[in-house]
Amino acid sequence: MEHSAPISWSNRPDDLSTTAGYDLIRCPASGVHNAIITSADILGVKVHYYHGRTRPHLNEFCPACDDRNPWRWRGYLSACHPKSLNSVALEITAPCVNALDDYLKHWGSLRGAVIMLWRPSHQPNGRISCRVEQSRFPVEQLPAAIDLEALLLKLWEIQPHMTAPELKQVMAAMHTKKNRIPNSNPKQIGTNGH
Ligand SMILES: [Zn+2]
């Protein structure tokens, strides 16, 4: 069924509304961030840090590419706090992937693994180190994985059915907004992107 893009028609209650309230966690500058992974694998995406915000690279009509802004890869994991089991989304960088892949090769799924993320340089944008280990927590008692794609679209203020030219318009409009997120913010960022 074709939908008219700017209006979010759906046959069932919108998945996007269920992602409200989850935090996107970036590795802190100091200390170690521990979490239990609840997704089976990484969801990766090319993004730009452009006009003060992290935005997705677009395969067509990408305004950031037009401006020669380089894209970079970011990975996302659904995870939960080891004690409260509250769900969060974790952002990882390319150097984290090897440790996750080693675990995946051995165990077939990331769900249930403990992930430890830290920045050896203690700099907000320093390279992230990552360690992945088996947890003792029963996997069947973990919360369901977050729909990461829906969460990211909501964070980026993008409707799932938007066409490439419409996305370009949205990206262009975002650049004029004042409520920008500094990329160096080592703490949490609310799902509304503010
Ligand atoms: Zn691009």
Low-confidence stretches at least 5 residues in length (pLDDT < 50)? 15-19, 178-194
Please give the radius of gyration in angstroms: 17 Å
How much beta, percentage-wise?
Answer: 25-35%
One letter per element, helices H and strands E, the order comes to EEEEHEEHEEHHE
Q: How would you characterize the largest beta sheet?
A: 9 strands, mixed
The helicity comes to 10-25%
Bound molecules: zinc ion
Large-scale geometry:
globular
Q: Which structural class matches the secondary elements?
A: alpha+beta
Task: Look at the structure and give the mean pLDDT.
Answer: 82
Strands, total number? 9
**How many individual helices?**
4
Distance between the termini: 33 Å
How many separate domains? 1
Q: Could you explain the architecture of this structure?
A:
There is one protein chain. This protein has 194 residues and is α+β, with helices and mostly antiparallel strands. A hairpin with a 2-residue loop joins strand 3 and strand 4. Helix content is 18%, strand content 25%. The chain has one domain (22-177). Strands 1, 2, 3, 4, 5, 6, 7, 8 and 9 form a nine-stranded mixed sheet that branches. The longest helix has 11 residues, at 97-107. It binds zinc ion. Zinc ion binds at residues 48, 57-58, 62, 64-65, 71.
